[in-house]
Amino acid sequence: MSNQHFSLVFESHSKNKVALKDIRLMNIFLLLKQYSVSAVGYALRIAH
């Protein structure tokens, strides 16, 4: 296995890890957004 090949494999692997982290962050962000939207809706319902 050549050194260049190894670095390419390593590069793509770390890119995948970053992508997975981004997806996880996006999921958390979406969940928080959903939660805050429903919380605001709930507060508005109580207020009315």
- Largest sheet properties: none
- Rounded mean pLDDT is 85
User: How many strand units?
Assistant: 0
State the secondary-structure class: mainly alpha
Helical stretch count?
Answer: 1
Instruction: Report the β-strand fraction as a percent range.
Output: under 5%
Order of helices and strands: H
In angstroms, what separates the terminal alpha carbons? 69 Å
Low confidence ranges: none
Write the layout of secondary structure elements.
Elements: H1 3-47
Outline the structure in words:
The chain is an all-alpha fold and 48 residues long. It has a domain at 16-48. It is built from one helix and no strands. It has one helix spanning 3-47. It is rod-shaped. It starts with a helix and ends with a helix.
Which features would summarize this protein structure in a list?
48 residues, mainly alpha, 1 helix, 0% strand
Short structural description:
By secondary structure, the protein is an all-alpha fold. It contains one helix and no strands. The chain has a domain at 16-48.
